[in-house]
Write the structure tokens for this entry.
Amino acid sequence: MTESKPLSLLFLCTGNSCRSQMAEGFARALGGERLRVQSAGIEAHGKNPRAIAAMDEAGVDISAQDSTVVTDAMLSEADLVVTVCGHADEQCPVLPPGVRRLHWPLPDPAKATGSEAEITAAFRAVRDDIRARVEALLQTEVKD
């Protein structure tokens, strides 16, 4: 029996600070050795402490992940690019032949307003949506 090559997955967002970071964290935690996972942004805005806290509540530590700008090398290594915001979807560079693309239109929790509890709830809602999407992606894209 031959082992299949891990799926190379790239999550792309505007600033690589919240949504793409959370998606990378869940994909690493849930996909294990079946995936090679990266995240990047059209720009790098640094890591969002609220995203780190929301993921920590879910048992996933993303504090050591880097906020990076997407490179041609990242795109050429990817089997699948998932854009997680409208700006990244619109500004996504042309992908090399054979690289597939999905779009997840996720709201930006960093733009949430209101009380601290309301902002935290927005981060949790996006986090939970991302987890469900990553789990579904693993079901359809990754073979055991």
Observations:
- Helices lie at 19-31, 49-57, 72-77, 86-91, 116-141.
- The first strand starts at residue 7 and ends at 13.
